[in-house]
Amino acid sequence: MSTSPAPSAPVPPAILVTGRLRLRRLVPEDAAFLVELLNDPAFLANIGDRGVRTPADAVAYVEKGPGASYARHGFGLYRVELAATGTPIGLCGLVKRDTLPDVDVGFAFLPAFRSQGYALEAARAVLDEAHDRVGLARLVAIVKPGNVASARLLLKLGMRLEGRIRLPHDPDELELYAIEFHAPEAPGR
What we know:
189 residues; 5-stranded antiparallel sheet; 26% strand; globular
């Protein structure tokens, strides 16, 4: 008697699609990818240690972080994958932190997929989502001083540096970037 492998969970549909990328909700099956990304030295240095070392840690991270955000807010961090192959390359999405009055945009990419325009492409789609679907009037981003690549990307998105802030329970000072979305003019004006 032969046994066939257990069927894998269905892949969630794409939330956002760009020319080269698909962004979709994270699921427990993304655990191996998340362990790799969340332990990348650049992620640890610029974003912080999320304590994800094993696939089980990654599943808990999805459930308590992005999964809880999807349920509560209707948005969160999304898996960014190459549209042509489905290869996971990073995270990008909206985050509502208890420590910030505004929603912020977050992103992180695996080393092999940096400096190729993927982060900018994904973040532009997320900014459109923030304005068009979520209806935000303002969006922010926080960056560690010295993270020049992320700061440069935020400026390309039209965000501006507002100053420095310190979040509760975080000893590091962060740069705060923001963008204001304007309501479209009514037709005939």
